[in-house]
Write the structure tokens for this entry.
Amino acid sequence: MMDPSVKTRIPSDGEPSRILAYWSPDDVVAVWNNLAKGGTEIERAPQSPGAAHLRAAWLGPPSAPRLRRVAPLEQVDGYGVFTFPYGPISMGVPEAGRFDVRTYGERVLDISPEVGFKARRILSSVAGLTIEDAALRIERLAGPFSAAHVSAFLAATESAAGRGISAREAWIRALAQELQRIYNHIHVVARVAEAASQNVGLAQAHALAEDVLRLMGSTFGHRWLFGAFLPGGPPTRLGPDDRVALAGTLGRLSKEFERLWSTFQTSRTFLDRIQTTCGVSREETLRWGAVGPTLRATGVAWDDRLRSPVPPYTDLFLPLATESSGDALGRVLVRVLEVRSSFLLLEQMLERWPASGSTQLPASEAIAPGRGVARVESPSGDLVYDVSVHDGRVGRVSARTASDANWPLFALGMRDAVFTDFHFAWESFGILFAETDR
Amino acid sequence: MIHVPSWLQLAWERGILTTKYPFEPARPEEVSPAGVGPVPTSPLDQLTDAPARCPTGAITLDAVDQGKCVRCARCLGAGFAFTGPVESSEARRGDLVWAGGRPGAQTNDGPLADLGRSIHVYLVDVGSCMACNLEVLALSNPYYDSQRLGIFFTNSPRHADVLVVVGVPTEEMVEPVRRAYEALPAPKAVIAVGACAIGGGVFAGNPGLKGALEQVIPVDRFVPGCPPPPVAILHAILATMGRSRTPPGGR
Ligand code: SF4
Ligand code: SF4
């Protein structure tokens, strides 16, 4: 009998692309818009030859008109090959989405994620709204990444209108983003540990994630930062005394994180379980346009905060975290290093907090028409927004999220894995269906 | 010398984290300002600026619909304050509409009141931003420790007593959530968590969405908020079990 793995292969059209993040934000959005519409042509040729591969990432007939497959693998068939759908409701993945899993005995031959189950038509629904009302929806696109989404959206509208923002506004956005990055990274580490049956210290990891949510709640008035940068949002506490208290709490949480990680680090069972699991190579992350910790875990030193820095990142010291293994452990390690660097960034910000500046969106009439593109390093990687503004209202909005970019890598990493690896492999990527189903 | 594992030491040093809720009122740090509903600080019909400020139409001159409120805080500049009760879930959708902007009496006896045992909860997402999901899952962290109250999460709807649903139902999720509902053995209860599940939240009216979970499956309890804080979700689960208690100082 033929071994089905022979037929599990990546379509090999064209040369490996350059890193997706090297593309200009305009190209990223143009290509993504086109692919999302099911197009085969690239509207505007990007600088790099990666487009053919991105096209190939959208293979396979969807099971319903509004659903899409986001896996790069050709599906395998043969005697003994068994396919089962996992989702759209499954407790292990607490989101609505489906994976078609093809197995041969214990082995996973390929996994084809299917998205679209929870498409809320958010980006198309904001056309015609004021920037403020549109932001209210965009921050609810993916709650755990709200600060990154609103920051990128607002930055794109500011670029469209040719408007600068005060130092204080910029710092508040960065502060919120770094707090949310810490939350997400600790949450991912805890979920990976949980799925890998690492019970020791797990409760403390979940408690630490809750500590960060509470800190965001007391600082920005909302545990998920909704409204945090918008005029008339929930009450914030960022006065001089609040900042001293905040610095103190962050210092304590940072120490607790270090001790927690040292307990995880001494657990051989945990490390062994995630080491070499769901690995992707540097060539694959570059070729398929991976972003964020998924990319950096394969040794590629790319982070928007350093590569396309905006204030306050231009003025702060940020060590860049990379690993080279490309497996679940590598992605966890990058997140651990980034929790540290985010604590360091927050410490610097609170020491050098800018004195004044208000958070005010200009009146609609004062906004010049135009189109703007902005990118932000979200917890899971490069996030790009492309926004046009007319008559003081939002026109067309499109986005390429970190989850969009990283789907193919999850599918590639699961080749030849066993299904029992699924959950922690999945968690290690930090992909949200909510980010793709927008 | 006895060797104390580092994780045990860590837990020991942090002490008892678990909330005293529901035996004592929720503490401010357990509920961020936007975790509770807005209440008018003067007679509602005098706050004539407020309805126009509200992006979801939750405020009229005679009532505030907590089910529509997404806690955006815009009404805070028009005479409202986030001072509603943590225990704000209701068994009937209509009871989330607070006449005069003030909460009325609450129904606390749910369909599982006679069960007399611990219960199992199955979480279903039908179109969320993921924040509601994470607030529900937070109930098993040491701060909320729902197990101490006999509330457990299960991996199968067949073993569940309560379906906790988050998100605005999309057309694609109508059939899956119906099937999950049917898989629950009777007696069963459904809790709609968050503005999206109650009535679409900020996404109400978008194409391809069912307006509310109620239109898809019967709902026994509605928990307002965007998202509701874990203690509010805990209260709602206890209420469906007939075990909710109003802590001193609560509603
Ligand atoms: S907080 Fe609620 S009631 Fe107040 S304006 Fe926002 S949505 Fe309306
Ligand atoms: S109610 Fe709010 S927090 Fe919950 S899923 Fe909807 S947008 Fe997200």
